[in-house]
Amino acid sequence: MREATGQDLGIKIGPDLSRNISLSNAKVLLVEDYIRVAGRIQSYLEDIATVTVDNVESGEITTPSLEKFDLIIISLSLSEIDGLRLCSHLRSAEATRQIPILVLVDEGDTQQLVRAMELGVTDYIARPIDRNELVARSKAQIRQKRYANRLRRNMQKSIEMAMTDAVTGLYNRHFLSSHLDNMMSKENDKRKKVSLLMMDLDKFKIVNDTYGHASGDEVLHEFARRISNDIRNIDLAARFGGEEFVVVMPETNLEYAHFVAERLRRSIADEPFEISGSETPIDITVSIGLAISGDNNTSSSKLLVAADQALYKAKENGRNQVCS
Ligand code: GH3
Ligand code: MG
Ligand code: MG
Ligand code: MG
Known about the structure:
There is one protein chain. This protein has 324 residues and is of the alpha/beta class. It is 42% helix and 17% strand. The strands form two sheets. A five-stranded parallel sheet has the order 2-1-3-4-5, sandwiched between helices. The longest helix has 33 residues, at 131-163. It starts with 26 loop residues before the first strand and ends with a strand. One magnesium ion binds next to strand 6. It catalyses: 2 GTP = 3',3'-c-di-GMP + 2 diphosphate. It is an enzyme of class 2 (transferase). GO terms for molecular function: diguanylate cyclase activity. This is diguanylate cyclase.
């Protein structure tokens, strides 16, 4: 019989994220007010984790920075505090929502166990506590938590990568389009003007030809940095294509947009760019086309076309200028 591989089955094989999940530096919080039990659990787990004991003496958890723990073990027979309420609180608090909770229940207390599981605790151990079981369940929970963290981080990274441009760190064209569509389709925003700047570096081919493509990339990076520094938090800068950039300015009239565009143009032209491919800083200029929503520019694509036409005018008129 043939060995079926993932590909045969139509399964896309990605990196195995669960491999090499290490238990090193695992941190466990143990909420147990019975000192001798706490000490014993601590010693059972000492090979796999650093255990912090919180004995809730004052009727509440006093351990700081709960978010750093990989696992929280809670006794459900605490004298000063209701263990189930504590579980419920930890499940709903932002800092601890993702941390697995292992509860210590009294043998045969099914009612308590059921309530704990309903509150979302992850696992349980019935007393009397078996050392091997405690270690095995703790390990499993810590691994699972670290695996989930890794997935979340990867997901976050993928989302960021899908939105941004690698060379400049600005938003990419794809993100810009949906942002602009969104902004222009909102009913109440139709009365508010959106100004859009379309920018294109002048004679950029010459920069590449003279200093090399890597130096060209440095210029693009520095250009993006200067624009980002010069716009408001509500504005959005994106790389539209090769050496073309867009700035979207919500609730901005033509006069103010002109003022910003002119300031951006000068921030490029007035300070030559330092790049590793050249001993002397090089002169860079940018042409800017400006358009505003309303009148004929009723959709994001129409607004982009209008800005592009204005940019063309700026190029025709001799570059290094703003046109609308
Ligand atoms: P114009 O003033 O008319 O805009 O002249 P230009 O030379 O800038 O225009 P053209 O469209 O002829 O050339 C654009 C250049 O931008 C050509 C291309 O090699 C360069 N370019 C596009 N994307 C990148 C990039 O990611 N990195 C680098 N280094 N260069 C790029
Ligand atoms: Mg061109
Ligand atoms: Mg150009
Ligand atoms: Mg161009």
